[in-house]
Each structure stands twice: as structure tokens, then as C-alpha cells.
Amino acid sequence: MTIEASAHKGRINPMATLLVLTLVNAMAQSGGTLLAAVLPLIKDEFGFSDGQLGLLTGYGSVLSMALLALPIAHWAGRYGASTMLAVSMMVCGVASALTAGCGALWQLIATRLVSGVGPAAAWPLGQALVSELYPPERRAGAMATYTAGDFLGNTLPLVVGGWIAVKFGWRTAFISFAAMIVLTALLQRWLVPNPPMILPTSAPAKAAEATRWSAGLRALWHERGFVQITLGFSWASFAVSGLSKWMPSFYNREFGLAPDEAAAFFGGAYAGGALIGLLLGGLLGNRIGADRPNRMLAFCMGTYALTFPCILGVLFAPNLKFAFVAHVAATVFGAMPNGPVLAMLHTTVPRHLRVLGASVFLLVLTMLGDGGGPLLIGLFSDLLQPRFGNESLKYAMLIVKLFGLMLFVHLSLAWRSARNQRRQDLASPFTILNPKDTL
């Protein structure tokens, strides 16, 4: 770690900064979840098909996240991570407010694309700021806390936003959350300073070259563990994001819950399971990865495997109570890998590539997972509707969930790559310390 970075850490409270960044992350994720909560109301007002709604909640909402991830990482290096994050969140808040005035599908897609600048910045910049504050042996727990913002942002809009939408209209719900996003951005910029520029300390003469996208992307491509972990969790996101965006509609159609009740029901199961899963995942990740970080790969595969029978329990539940219990269990096991996997990602790449690495991770996750999952469920639901009627959505969700099996293929390759690298390091008489494991 550089002397400047150490001094920077001494001037701020890591826990306070972590909590503020977690709140920012929550607000950045709130727009997509609020859209999912009010989806039945939008469908009733405009008469959109499931395919159109899948486009809106999929690529229509997250494509800008993928396109802006790399430029935001570049601008953060010039203007400061905290400054860039605050500006992006302000734009996100304004776009969310404009959503309330939309009257056509293309308008909804346009405003959702602009608001994607918020999560596009919160994911890489927030993670990089957290990584700077915590050493590797505590990073899984810190990342689990930061990831709690994802689940808070995926719960609060369901419960609060769904209630506002039913009582006062879905447009009022978007205006309310837009105000919260703007206030959170102002709080973050006031309390979180810009960190010093992160550059490779081993080769100062090549610092400018290392910050170029082409050089950084080539370096990331040669980090085989990073590549396989990114691909594996992109497939998992394909399933998780797709099911999450459609779950309130599933409860509305399958059990006859009103839109606000369906959103609150899903939000309750999501919140309870996520908090338990994140806490357990962070604690176990710190313990398991304290001396052998690669053991966390097996931990992630094991916990994610348990989500499959739980999701089957949700989709084919005989009653609402059974579905709730199964959903809580699925969320617990699904949330447990979040902290460890982010810690692994930031450990497998050098410090000066963390922002770029997180941006690439977000880009792949968005293009393959967040965009494709909801869209494919909508398309499958339309195709299956003639045969299964009102239950077409259930079978479409089941098909997309099966795509998550690809996670095990890529994490197995990552584990093999890490094992081979460890053998090479142990065999080398000159290996003292892996520089990528340092701060």
C-alpha cells in the first residue's frame, strides 16, 4: 500500500464510509426494483405484452449500465471516485423523476436507460472504495455489508414503493424514490472524500500506460480466475435477475395477490433471507478464506446449489405459506456467496485494476444476466401462454433458472486455475509473496 493511501485511510472512518456507500448502493438499485413492483399496474394501464415488459425490465433498463461501466471507471480516475459516484447518482435521481411523466414504452425505456448511470457507477466505484478500506482477511465481510445495499435496494421499493403505487399511483412512487436518490447522493459527496489515485507501485514509469483501457483489459484477460468467476456469476445473475424482476408478477398471477401485496410479500421474503444470507456469507467467507481464499469457490458453489430445490418449492408451492418459507430459504442460500465472490474478484487482480475489473464484471453481468434474464422470461411466457395459460410465467421462470447451472462449470475452471497457480508458486524457490494479495 502507498504512503498516501495509508494516510487517506487514517483521515476517515472505515465503518461510517462503508455504511454510507451501502446506502448509496441501495438507492442505485432501487429504480429497477420499483419498476418490478409496479409492473402489474403498468401492464393494466398500457396493455403491454409480457415480451414488452421483459424488454423494459431487461435490456431496456440495464443496457446503459453495461455501456457506461468502462467510461465511468475512466472518468473516476480523472475526477475522483466519490465525485463521479455523486454526479452519477444525481443524474439517476433526475431520470427516475422523469419516469413519472412517461406515456409510452419508448419513453419508459429512455428514462430507465438514463437512470442506469447510477448503478453503473455504484457497482465499480463503491466496491473499489470499500476495497481500499479493508485488508483481504476482512474484505469478504466488508463486501457482504456493501452488497446488503443491493438487497435493501431490492426490498424497500417492493414494500414502500408498492404501497405508494397502489395508494397514490405508480408515478408518485417514482417521484418519491427520485427524491431519496438525490438526497443520498448529496450525503455521500459530503461525507465520502475522493481517495488518492491508485497506480501500480512497482512500475511508476508505466503508470500512464497501465491506466489505459487496452492495457488494463489485456491484463484482466490474463487473470484466468477473474475471467471464470465473472462468467460464472453472470450466468447466475441471468437466472437470479430474471426471477427477481418477475417474482411480484408471479405472486400476483399464481396466488391472486394485489400488486402492493405481491410486492410486499416478495419483499418480506427477500429482505429476511438476504440479511441472514449476507451475514452468514460474510462471516463464513472471512473464516474460510483467511488462509486459502480459493476455498471460497467451493463454498459459493455449494450454497448456490441449494437455491435450486428452494426455487422449485416457490414455483410449485401448494400454498402461499409454503412459497414464503421456500423463498426465504432460496434467498438465504443465494445471498451467501455475494460477499465472498466480490472479495475473490478484488483479490485476483492488482490494486490499480480494481475499478476497471469491477466495471468489466458489471458489464458482463449486465449484458448476460440483468438484461437477458428478464427479457427471456417474458418471451418464454408469451410462447408458452397458449399451452399453459396463466401458468406460462411459472414455467418460463423455471427454464431461465436452469441457465444458472453454468455457474458450476466456470467456477470449477476457476478452482482448477487457482490450484495450478498455487502449485507453481509453492514450487518456485523465489516466491515470497504474491503481490496481488497485498493491499
TrEMBL record:
Superkingdom of source: Bacteria
Topology versus the membrane: Multi-pass membrane protein
Family annotation (InterPro entries): MFS (IPR011701), MFS_dom (IPR020846), MFS_spinster-like (IPR044770), MFS_trans_sf (IPR036259)
Alphabetized UniProt keyword annotations: Membrane, Transmembrane, Transmembrane helix, Transport
Primary location: membrane
Keyword Transport part of the UniProt annotation: yes
Subcellular location: Membrane
Membrane spanning stretches: 52-73, 85-109, 168-187, 263-284, 296-316, 322-343, 355-380, 395-415
Keyword Translocase assigned: no
Segments forming domain Major facilitator superfamily (MFS) profile: 17-419
Protein name: MFS transporter
